Amino acid sequence: MKTQQIVLASRPIGTPTLTNFRFEDVVLPEMNDDEIQLNTLYLSVDPYMRGRMNDAKSYTPPFEVDKPIEGAGVAKVTASKSEKFNVGDYVYGRLPWRIHTVGASKEFIKIDVSVAPLSYYLGILGMTGLTAYFGLMDIGKPKAGETVVVSGAAGAVGLMVGQIAKIMGCRVVGITGSDQKVKLLKEEFKFDEVINYKTTQHLEKSIERSCPDGVDIYFDNVGGVISDAVIRNINFHGRIPLCGQISLYNSSTEPYGPRLQPILLTRSVLLQGFIINDFQSHFPEAMQQLITWVKEKRLINSETIIQGFNQLPVAFLGLFEGQNTGKMVVEL
Ligand SMILES: NC(=O)c1ccc[n+]([C@@H]2O[C@H](COP(=O)([O-])OP(=O)(O)OC[C@H]3O[C@@H](n4cnc5c(N)ncnc54)[C@H](OP(=O)(O)O)[C@@H]3O)[C@@H](O)[C@H]2O)c1
After folding, report:
1. Are 226 and 247 spatial neighbours (Cβ–Cβ below 8 Å)?
2. What does the pLDDT look like over 81-116, one tens digit per residue?
3. In sequence order, what E strands does the chain have?
4. Residues in the ligand 1 pocket, defined by CB under 6 Å
5. Phi/psi at 25 (nearest 5 deg)?
6. Cys staple from 327: which of 36, 61, 123, 257, with CB 3.0 to 4.6 Å?
């Protein structure tokens, strides 16, 4: 059977472009025992994939040049040599950027389609939701009445963090990159204050004005100058879940900034980096909580769904230009 895939054509220097990707026609291999054949329905594009385009050691191995890009996806079983799955089942797992694929059944988890739409498993009920949940709850440890600032606030993780912080009774201040997103966060997601980092004259002072009692928790999705400005406003015994640094992912030079350690030291601040897999043994209970909040309509899903396999590279590049609200997903 013939199918189409997208491979890493070359490693980017600085911001990636469409030339770093290549479309190829390939023939699917025959299925072996315990394997399933899949028709890919949704693929997730995520900022961390930028790191995998570099030839650098990290918590996940780099993508290989001339090999398919891969990431989280949802697919339908079209043929099965596994007792675990039947034709017609829906599964979640790591998938190559390929329209059809064959994979080992042990690599996939069956999805209960009665719980939520399939794309939710790439966002609100997937890694995104779990990242927001554990970063905020286990590292941030929010208490009612505290002030939580979240950067990348209208993105997949940020929107979840803001909503969970509201459920916890916190005052929530978001930082995002457009007036349209500011309006959405305030009006639909009930953020208390939202700052447009692209238009504000003085970010540090804007944060100070928006957080009259200081910042108790800073959920950092972006790093760089935005985080420098927030951390200058952090309170005594503040907590900083260090989730992402998207503003630095395309830097081709070593980024420099102010030395923030004296602030962390003198205000007894906890700053903790984390990778979501650190919390793997607790995923089931967190997932139950997320499902409950979704059913109670206390967590509202937000996603930007781009149509078409051939739009995958465009959707991925769009993350670095703020083209998504909520989870960026491609529907094949
Ligand atoms: N630690 C973990 O295990 C883990 C897991 C998942 C994600 N993450 C990290 O969490 C962060 C958010 O991920 P996500 O999946 O939710 O992505 P996302 O926020 O949905 O998408 C990226 C958003 O980042 C903002 N952005 C892009 N370039 C920026 C820049 N130079 N400065 C400031 N903001 C910029 C854009 O929004 P604006 O319009 O607001 O600029 C864009 O929409 C990323 O850094 C990601 O790597 C970490």
Report:
1. yes
2. 999 999 999 999 999 999 999 999 999 999 989 989
3. 2-8, 21-27, 35-44, 70-80, 90-96, 100-104, 109-110, 147-151, 171-176, 193-196, 215-219, 234-242, 270-273, 303-307, 327-331
4. 46-48, 127-128, 131, 152, 154-158, 176-178, 181, 221-222, 226, 243-247, 274-276, 319-320, 322, 324, 328
5. -90, 135
6. 123
The answer for 197, left when phi > 0, alpha when psi is -120 to 50, beta otherwise, is alpha
Q: What is the pLDDT of residues 279-297, one digit of tens each?
A: 999 999 999 999 999 999 9
Burial class (CB in 10 A: 0-12, 13-18, 19+), 62: middle
Q: Which of 78, 99, 64 is nearest to 35 (CA)?
A: 78
**What's the CA gap between 143 and 170, in Å, rounded?**
7
| 139-173 pLDDT per residue, tens | 999 999 999 999 999 999 999 999 999 999 999 99
Give me ligand 1 centre to Cα 48, in Å.
9
The SS3 of residue 316 is helix
- Cα–Cα distance between 47 and 152 in angstroms, integer? 12
Q: What percent of the chain has pLDDT over 90?
A: 97
d(C-alpha 265, C-alpha 322), whole Å:
33
